[in-house]
Here is the input.
Amino acid sequence: MSRELTVLVLGNGGREHALALALHRDPAVVALHCAPGNPGTASIATNHAVDATDGAAVVALAEQVGANLVVVGPEAPLVAGVADAVRAAGIACFGPSAEAARIEGSKQFAKEVMQAAGVPTAASVYCTTVDEVAAAIDRFGPPYVVKQDGLAAGKGVIVTSDRDAALEHAADALPAIVEEYLDGPEVSLFAITDGVTALPLQPAQDFKRVGEGDAGPNTGGMGAYTPLPWAPEGLVEAIMRDVVQPTVDAMAARGTPFSGLLYAGLALTSRGLRVVEFNCRFGDPETQAVLSLLESPLGEVLDAAATGRLAEVGELRWSSDSSVIVVLAADGYPGVPAKGGAIAGPRLFGSDDAVHIVHAGTSGEAALTASGGRVLGVVGRGADLSAARASAYAAIDELDAPSLFCRRDIAERAASGQIGTPTL
Ligand code: AMP
Ligand code: GLY
Here is the structure.
């Protein structure tokens, strides 16, 4: 049995609501606080109006509420060193140091770590001028992949066969990475690590493009599902062996051990698996689907990672169900989202077995309005992906939120067996 936990979750998105829901289910979690949180977290935890990227303010709040575990949701506080500040105050923290968070904060740093660790990833060129980008994209050929080096909330990447569009994107994204194009289905695998031991969560797939059929610009993620019925045998083991453990070991060898959640975004290409990106935190919206199936106590696991005891935790336990999350975004997203749209309907708080709603960009209490890009996530569960999709879309059809839109094809190809099993 774990120690009793008073947990402070930092962040205000759908991922943080999902973390709070899973922590709330853990009997070891005796008190739950969120900062700043959202109307969804307010229904299960105490929200506090604190700037999550301000280390001193976060430490003061953690001390005030008696938190003995701080869980950092988003990348911005991690890159800003908030986990370092919390640990320096003697409080256990789930989340990497600022140095280790560079694995997400700089795509070029991630490439250097992967090269040192022998981790397979797309060939790439680091560019500081548009002329260098032009030379690099002409070398790789179309489709062109141009990525902003620094943090961009999932919107810093363009994948296009339009050379002018690639160069236009590059002008606003310098310094930038130009990469070879990776084909094949994408997988998000999250690993919890204490810097030495790493423990995989169930793999998921995310839908990055705003439009149905994967059309339009990249977003933070419009939906996700888990598990992957098309996954090749041994997928998780291969990713842990070839990607996660070598990366964790390389980070430790550099003197910047990575403790927290290592998110491996991968493409299963015709030439084998390749890392598309690393993130230094739970993925959004995959986390909402993945954690809805977790049967192990999340607080205990995150606490073990934060205190260097992850080897004591056995394999995680999962429901055999499938889970699908469909994101409802405000009109205009991923550009400037329309704010203030009314949201009404059943299930905006609470949940039943088949479906629950996660808040991401809502404001208000009784009368909710949209206040962000991704506003709600509807998580459906069922015996298989078709049943889980049916639950999620039925709940969406009951909502009255005319300023929001969603993709109607989340997990559709996987549910109907249209994704072929790649070879590892
Ligand atoms: P990233 O922010 O690096 O995850 O990129 C966002 C999305 O762009 C990925 O999830 C992919 O869908 C796409 N993408 C990124 N890099 C590549 C690549 N080298 N080849 C093909 N698609 C890519
Ligand atoms: N779902 C993509 C991300 O969290 O970055």
Summary: Residues 203 and 342 are 34 Å apart (CA to CA). The two ends are 38 Å apart (CA to CA). The mean pLDDT is 96. The longest helix spans residues 235-253.
